[in-house]
Specification:
alpha/beta; 24% strand; Rossmann fold; globular; 250 residues; 11 strands; five-stranded antiparallel beta sheet
Amino acid sequence: MSEFILETEDLTKEFAGFVAVNGVNLRVERGTIHALIGPNGAGKTTCFNLLTKFLSPTRGRIVFKGRDITALAPADVARLGVVRSFQISAVFPHLTVLENVRIALQRQRGGSFDFWRSKAVLDTFNDRARKLVDDVGLSAFAQSTAVELPYGRKRALEIATTLALDPEMLLLDEPTAGMGHEDIDRISALIKSVAADRTVLMVEHNLSVVENLCHRITVLTRGRVLAEGDYDTVSNNPEVKEAYMGTGHA
């Protein structure tokens, strides 16, 4: 079995002559937290959209666990175990935290949400739902409606509904965006916990989060890979300092 769970070869996406992602060769090692960073317009989100098949590449290949998934539909990629949080997660604002997670668990039955089934049948999901709610630190909010949750807690609920799909690889698009320090610390701890038995690929602007969490970092600029390595390697790269962090950033 390859040490790399996800690989891309010459991944490229053009929009009417504009090259948003340009020949990206990405290798994500299984069991790690890997970050994509770069300035605005670097191609990070487009790259995520390509990996999860919300966009089709102009050219190049995407390989997951040795299988070419380039031509697959988004739902098929998700079923294989590559799940993008905050895009696929089902959060219903006027249902409780527990109900949201329970509905997400129902997707494992093959697509039927079973709204017509008896309450006893639906209650069979409760133990697993409570465990997921506890795993993301929301036990005290289990009976609160999603709309009532503070922003950081809502993001934790979204992670819980994504984990209900039992993904082997989790893609997180700016998981700490818009958060205060307390929520950032909480979500960072949650990501670290989640990554204990799965692989995480994340786009993140907060460099302290990247430094503390990520084993490997790929820096994109103008759609190309500028540098790759651990935090010390990329943060001391003169080209990275100039393109992304500013020349004075250590």
